[in-house]
Amino acid sequence: MTENRKKGLRLTYNAPVVLTFVLLCVAAYLLNLLTGAKPDQGVSGWTNSHLFSVHRASLLDPLTYVRLFGHVLGHSSWEHLLNNAMYLLILGPMIEEKYGSSNVLFVILATALAVGVIQMIFFDTAVLGASSVVFAFIILASITNMEQGTIPLTFILVVLLYIGQEVLNAFRADQVSQMAHIAGGVVGGALGIVMNKLGMSRRS
Fold first, then answer.
1. Is 47 among the domain residues?
2. Residue 204's pLDDT band (boundaries 50, 70, 90)?
């Protein structure tokens, strides 16, 4: 006699790279608070200043190379962190499901490196936050159903709306790095086109 057992619900770590990335962002923010940050006064902690923001610095400083990638983990406030985490958790699992964890990790690292290098070469300020990765995911998500020899209309519209808006906002005096958003979108779009062309997805 066979006994039918009903399977209970269980939690799954369904998007390991995206979930781990978000958790690292949370951990980085908590470290920033523990090392002297005062968000309400615009004061950064030691970790945000030395590990989780990228700025022009000597190539002889080992922490320069940490900041080249670590800046995407740093956030200046809970609001800043939660806004980025929301987009990452909405878009990330879908992208990771299609392209696989290793490719998504590469997108995150490539975006961080591109933004870090541009910031160090062309700007005198510091930049931090995962918004560049968010923009990479937004553009990447718009071409997840791209077929050979086609250009999805969603891709064109998203580029015009999101990247176009950032280009216009670049002329405003605010605390937002439009360069990071634009660079993230370009990296996400370029890698998305390449991955689709090479069939680098789980569904291929």
1. yes
2. very low
